[in-house]
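We emphasize that the prediction below concerns an isolated chain of 1553 residues; any contacts that depend on oligomerization or on bound cofactors are therefore not represented. The input was used exactly as deposited, without trimming of termini.
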Amino acid sequence: MAIAVAFRFREREYYQELNTGDELLMGCHKKDTVQIPNSKEHLLIMKNVGDEVKAAAAEPLRLPGSLLSCNELMVLSRSVEATLYLSRVIPRSAKAVNLPYNGSIRVGRHPDNDIVVSYPIISGHHFQLQLEAGQVHVQDQNSTNGLYLNGKRISKAIMKSGDVLSIYTFRFILQNGMLYFENIGSSIRVSENIEKMDRPAAPDVVMPKAAPQKAVQPKAPGQSPAAGGIKPPKAVSTAVYPQYQLSPRIREQLPHEPIILSSAPGHGASIGGRRSNFAYLISSGAMLAASLATGMLTPAALLMRAAGMISPLANMAMYNKMSKEERQQLEEYEKMRQERYQAYIDSQKARICKVADVQRRILTAENPAPAACMDTVKSLKRNLWERMPSDSDFLTVRLGIGKVKLCVEVKSRANTDGFVMEDDELEELAGQIIEETRYVENVPVRVSLKEQRTVGIVGEKADVFYQLRSMLVELATMHSFRDVHIIGLFEEDSMKTWGLIRWLPHIWDESGQVRYIAFDEKRRHTVCELLADMIRRRKLEAHPENGTKQTQVLPHYIIIAENQKLLQDESIYEDLVSNNQALGITTVLLASRLYELPQTCQYIVDLSEASALAYEREKYDERSMFRPDAQIHTADLKAFARKLAAVELKDRASEAELPSSITFLQGYHARRVEDLDVFSRWERSEPHRTLAAPIGMMAGRKLFYLNVLDGNEAHGPHGLLAGTTGSGKSELLQSWILSMAVSYHPHDVNFVIIDYKGGGMSDLMEPLPHVVGKITNISRNIGRSLVSLKSEVKRRQQLFAEYGVNNIEKYQRAYRNGEAKERLPHLIIVTDEFAEMKKEEPEFMTELNSIAAVGRSLGVHMLLATQKPAGVVTDQISANSRFRICMKVQDVADSREMLKRPDAARITQAGRAYVRVGEDELFELFQSFYSAAGYSETITDKMSTENLVRVVGVTGNRINPLPKKKKEAVELDELTAVIKYINRVCKEHGIEKMAGPWLPELPDWLTLEELGVTGGFDGTSWNPPKGLIVPVGRYDIPAAQAQGVQALDFMGVGHYGVYGSNVTGKTFFLKTVLVGLCRYYTPSQVNVYVIDANTWSMTEFSGMPQVRQVILNSEAEKLQSFAKKIYLELEARRKAFQKHAVSSLAAYREAVAKDTPAIVVMIDQIKPMFEQSPEMSEVLQELAASGATYGIYLIYTTHTSLGLSYKFTQLIKGCVTFQMPEKGDYSQLVGPIAGISLPNVQGRALMRGNPPVAFQAAVYADAKEDTARHEQILALAEQMTAAWNASQHPQAEAAAAGQEPVAEAAAAAGEATYHGEVTYHGEAEPKAAPVPEKAEEQNYDNRSCIPIGTYSDDMEPAFLDLAEQTICLICAEHPEHSRAFLKRLEGTLRKKPEENSVVLLNEMTYAEVLPDLKEKLNERLKLLNQNKKKTGFVEKDWILTYMQICVLIEDLPKLMAVLPEADQKTLRMILSKSAGLGVIVLMAVTKEELLAEKKDIVLDFAMKKQFAVIVDGNPIEYSAFQIEGDAVMADMLLDEDESAVVQDGRIRFVRSV
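Result of the prediction step, given as a token string:
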């Protein structure tokens, strides 16, 4: 018995069959039967001894015994993953599987697999074969024992023909699309589902259940036996009308991916080289001979040719020296090459044949023979009328059976049709298989009547007729009469042959009134006239000026003419043979010979030859030969047509059952308006439960109620209405509004009518007490109207919140129960011609959609009407509209936009409409009420059913046997009569029209005080709010029903631009902002710089303590200094923020210095500033880019953004616009302003936002006259300055209150103006009374480093360091400035009375002070010299034990003028000795004295120290001091609180705290 051996070792599987007595060696020895790389010699030795195998193994393998049995899995080693499985060899199973082209096959032990293999080592679901376009993909399903392909373990792979898939000894072999099994035997079961895996189920029979029999009359598609309520005559026979429903068509796709054949493997290197060398040698010789013959061979060319021939000769010589073994290897390679490539070609041919089988099966199933089509109709199968216009084979019909090209491209990588150097039989195989499989036999030959718009059928009359019958049968079976209409024009003698097709539903027109069939000239003219109307309409729709997209035109008309002569005299002949796809027409012409067809005929079916041909006019070389299908006889065709005539579609309402018109009162069954009894209806109505109102009549005389309430049982809350001119759209709207008014109380339902057709409808409906507002396209304030609507929505939300309800139904119920106090009606917004409104007021339309989105639960409903919805109904409108009413529309695109189907494009009756709710939750056809009918007391409730009896002709035409009645002339219509009646009822019961939504306008004059903002300046102090928020006016947001304080949030927004025309209030607004800043923030919180380049009126604010500087555009020097200061401030704050790791002013205040002020730069008319100087332009750009980050904000005015760079304006986030010359300017500056009006009122402005906010700017002073406002500002500035000075200087405040200042009180107590010193032994002298200290001031820790503010270049604390240089000049242009600075330093020094002894040296005190100073210094000098001899003496530490003597000279020139010469020398000596003896000297001088040529000895000595503080003027003008570095930046004017410290040639600017 032969035994199969499967040995797995290190992820590889080795298979061998072992016959009885045979021995098998596995390992890496060269004599081992099975070579296993990276193993041991003779790793495993086995011998078949019958039913068992005798085995031996080397390390690391371990056998379970010396004799091994079959069908047992043996683990020989876990370290190297070695396993062994033995089984009996079983020949290839007969149960081979023909793999499908597409599909999925599961293999495993579990019964639910497609291939079940019942062996224990097979997992329940072992692996899966995925077939995709003939390719076989295999995937392991996480099996226990794994899966191997050609001996290699895989998880996923692609199989090729000849591949072996194995699970130990169980082998699955793929060969030419077949799957074979080895060593499995009978333990396998193959499912029958595999054969039909890649094809859909055959169409099943859907024969309807038995139903009560009713009369059968010949009828048009969708037509009921009874029309208009008139009973049909008694029928001679009865039958069932099958109710058929279209179901999804299940299709297969033809294979489409190309098949690329691989090239044959190359020849052996030497053999191939020999042949190529030989060929090259021949060609080179030929070229050499040609050159010799033509005399063109030069010595150089001869040398090149000779060299080229040497190489191949050398190669051929080498081949002749090959050994026998090498030649044998080449021959074996060639044999293997041929075998393998032949096997590959066979597998690819099998794959191609499988593609052909799939193509044949799909095409045959989708294009059945005529007999199969007739069986479909007879049995009413599911595939009846299954083709849709969107299908690729729509209007494709079968001609017969023939051959067609393979549906996929087969090509080879090899050069099969070009020049080759040598012949190769294998290379020719690819070309052969391509040629053999190019065509597929026994496949339906088809023609597309959609692509070929003129088709001629040529041949004998009988043959042509039979061919046409076959085509008509498939056409009528596969295509619905909704999508395809058939028109037959025949000779009179063909009535018997073709008259029976009149039963086809495709022959009827869209209204079901006329059959498109003619057998005489008169009838032919009538049919062609009907077609002419249709053609004109479709030409108009397809015209490029209409802007309509090119879509498929439906229904498609198939026009059959028995001969060309029948059409040539008709006006539409040129259109019928023009092949114009926009017309949706295909013309089929019958002829006995080709000559009788028109020149434009695109496709020809030639039956005159022995073999039938079909071809395009311009592609005769691609003609198809076919065998026509079996002939259809007359009786069979008649039965087919009669059967098809009786089939009705379930989902199509029958228009014939609807009345042609019905008046409003007829719909209510009322003779007079009083019969409506509206007050009783109002009393009975429950608007919280339903808002249903009748608007038309459906089939069976059922009224259609439109219920705009929100909910599953209703249709609302919003909807769309579409109808072209003359469709009755406005009439339907009027009837619905009137019906709602009849059914519901004026306080339960309100209407706002938006009429963009000039106001005609809204004027008619306005007298109704239910109509509370109207908007027309001639209204002046449309935006305000929208705001009113939005305000109403907001008001309703607030009411709902107040009473704890979440929808209008609950609120109205609460009102009826007495819980709610205010009656709240449903508000219905009706828009007629919203397409025009959307075009003229797009923002208005957008807001209406927003109202619709939020208003559904608030009782706000919307109905939008338009003539042409296609391209107008946006996704947002569509999403908000639950119900859609579609009347007659211009084209199918409009119908599909509304209904998702083309039905409304076929409506011909005015007032007829389809209604669709949701996703076909409701789909009905109804005839709407007609409220414009004349009104009189004699009007009855009978509907227009007169003369509905018709005589139906053979061609479907109806004849009215009775004359129409004449209508009586009336002056009053029903609409007016009903409105008058409703108003009369309201008057009788005291019912008033409810007020419409409205919002109050903002006042034209508004003061800051009237804003009601608390905090800020109260006359004596400030209570500032957080941030930097400035109230500037009152905003108005009607959409939110909100008015409040409009503010500028500098910290939140950043910079602001203020735009507006002349005399609109820009400068006035800037002043309001300035006053607001000063009112609400202290000078330590905000500093304001004002640049006035406009009216120069901003100087009146210079007295405000927060205003640092007011600069006019004419003050060039000040502007230059300002630019430098702002630049320096920006750089300083950038450094400071980075150092302390903060990113905002608020964070810096919290973490570092809470009194760091925000800086606001105000520029009135900014454009000149960009032209002032490059420095100013750069600073403004930098300020806009990064200023807000560091608490420096810009606000400017200008007329327009023109002239400002785009980069600059993009950095300005805040924007205020006053009146602008162009409306488009607002959108550019502040954003879309739909619904926001800006009346021509000074001070009315818009604030940028989303959306923008309108506000009225407040006035900065409550006075109409400029003079009065100026006086108020001066008074406010004086008051604020006094309050601020009082808060900053408590001594002055105490003096003002009648108290003695601290210094004066100390003097009165007899204390000295300077103090003693601390001895080396720690004995302290009396201390001075402390000076009050502000919490905000800088720390004063080192007595020699006096804090004077913060450095302007880094915002770090600034100190006057007198430790080394003890003499400092305080310089100023004005003496009072230097004395004030010196006074401030004195106050700081006195804060350390225990360390500082302050000495005031002037013309009054020098006689006492100088001797005392001299004595103390001499004493200190003596002690210093004594202590220097001591070991470990530190001079710096020693001097700190003495008090620091601070000599302050507030007017040096004045002092020197009275000092005797001896005292001058004494003072000069004191200055020279001060450095090491704990003395500092501060002297105030003027710039004039510094620049004088002659100086006293003291000033001269002090100036040599080059240490000074400049407190006013321009530092660069103090030429007595040498300034190194960037002298340009030092060239600027100092502010009031600024100073410049000059020390060692360096200048640094300081800002006082």
